[in-house]
User: Which sequence fits this backbone?
């Protein structure tokens, strides 16, 4: 059975929603106020706050509050566990495909004899 990493699951869950991915894309440019993030979505503020809560729980963003203004900032290094996992999966599948290619080439050579 595969090793279950709850942090990795949180990351994939957080990135599974297009609204949250859009927010992260916006935050990659510069930190933004919650109201600025809410505007393009067309969602009500409580819904946007739930999306931001998911991103924060996954460690993808941090929030700070100055008076009544809440500002969000991306945490790019939070994606490192996901990048590591994807790199491991890529290596596994490339090795499998290389073995399959070698097998097919061997079968083709033998069938030519």
Assistant:
């Amino acid at each position: 059975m595969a090793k279950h990493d709850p942090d990795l699951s949180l990351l994939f869950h957080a990135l599974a929603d297009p609204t949250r991915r859009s927010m992260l894309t916006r935050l990659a440019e510069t930190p933004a106020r919650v109201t600025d993030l809410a505007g393009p979505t067309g969602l009500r503020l409580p819904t946007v706050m739930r999306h931001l809560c998911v991103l924060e729980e996954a460690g993808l963003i941090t929030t700070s509050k100055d008076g009544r203004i809440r500002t969000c900032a991306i945490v790019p290094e939070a994606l490192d566990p996901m990048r590591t996992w994807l790199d491991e999966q890529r290596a596994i599948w490339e090795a499998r495909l290389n073995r399959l290619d070698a097998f097919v080439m061997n079968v083709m050579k033998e069938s030519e004899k």
